[in-house]
Amino acid sequence: MAMKRILVVDDEPEVRKAVRLTLKKAGYEVVEAEDGEKAMEAIRIGDNPMRVDTIICDIQMPKINGMEAIAYFRSQFPSVPVVVMTGNPDLKGSTELFKKGIVDYLVKPVKAEMLIDVVDKAAKEHNILRGDTSKII
Fold first, then answer.
1. Domains of the chain and any CATH numbers
2. Structure confidence by residue, pLDDT tens digits, 28-54
């Protein structure tokens, strides 16, 4: 079974580290980016985009913010689930994000069990969308 790859986009190094350690312990490969611009570069390396099973993205970041990055991910990689993880919850903003296709909205700090549950669910949905039902029970 191929290891599932998660792209974590957050401008706080300690948040990325905590998410990386939590998800690695749960069996995921984690790629990190400190802002939307770096995430967009990471996912489009060369001619072949990097395969990711889920994207976890903060909203308030320098350069390209989460709203812009999410719009890009949804337009370029519509089958990849996007989970928002923010320290500044905004009901109106979260409603807009769900309309744009995010699969979940987490408020920092996030408990490890909740993060793993959300990522597991999103990655399974991604496999179904890709037609890979061999690993689904």
1. 5-130 (3.40.50.2300)
2. 999 999 999 999 999 987 677 888 999
- Identify which of 82, 110, 119 has the alpha carbon closest to the alpha carbon of residue 3: 119
Token code pair at residue 109: 């700090």
User: How far is it, in rounded angstroms, from Cα 50 to Cα 57?
Assistant: 16
User: What is the model's pLDDT at position 127?
Assistant: 67
Residue 40 tokens, joined: 């967009």
Cis amide prior to 109 (ω within 30 degrees)? yes
Strand positions, DSSP E, the chain = 5-9, 29-33, 54-57, 82-86, 104-107
Confidence check: pLDDT of 106 > 70: yes
Residue 19 near residue 10, CB atoms below 8 Å: yes
Give the amino acid at 67: M
Give residue 128's pLDDT.
63
Between CA 52 and CA 92 the distance in angstroms is 28
